[in-house]
């Protein structure tokens, strides 16, 4: 579903991604892990076109972002790290605005809005201003918005940051249910390892490089670690390379 091939990115002299490659199979919950500054948001910026590609290739569902950016973006739904809802518009208005950006006609947009709000358990809040929603519900609304154009791949960039423990867990379980029930492919980025299950497929990024990938429990065995936290610590402390010397 997603192929990242030798992707490199610099901000001036600072190297954020140094030849990153990995692939995700279709369907299921995948995690992109990395400490602060690992390059997770940069990679998502490249996938979404917020950042211009400098080297390497990204393919979604077999289509190259370099060659066919519009088609690739149609396959992609994104929940960004920084919330991007208009707090003074209603829940429904936020969705309809986004639907129009994707070129959905009014009738189809309304149908999709109703369907996604129902799926996120937000149908009763449709007329309320977003300002009135709590943090967990705002995140659900962002997920509903990201799914309006029916993407094949949903990417969530540190979506649980800023939520309390119970809301964090609820959001994580909710996204896993989306995968199971709708056969979606999800890429969940985080530095919070308690959000990861032993059988999740994980890609570990550190200092702009992939330091490990595979099932979380297999990574623990391979590094002789008792917990994913231990494995993460071992794999990420090896990578203390100054940003100017990475690419
Ligand atoms: N606009 C920018 N200008 C210069 N350097 C940047 C910029 N954005 C990110 N960086 C640097 O690129 C590297 C990767 O940052 P990025 O935000 O992609 O990491 P991250 O894994 O998403 O971190 P976090 O978990 O803190 O969001 C870091 O060294 C960061 O300081």
Automatic annotation (TrEMBL):
Domain called ABC transporter: residue spans: 2-232
The UniProt keywords, alphabetically, are: ATP-binding, Nodulation, Nucleotide-binding, Transport
Q: What would be one Pfam family of this protein?
A: ABC_tran
Q: Which domain of life is it from?
A: Bacteria
Q: Which residues cross the membrane?
A: none
A single GO molecular function term of this UniProt record: ATP binding
Protein family according to the UniProt entry: Belongs to the ABC transporter superfamily.
Q: Please identify the protein, giving its name as recorded.
A: ATP-binding cassette domain-containing protein
- In which organism is this protein found? Billgrantia antri
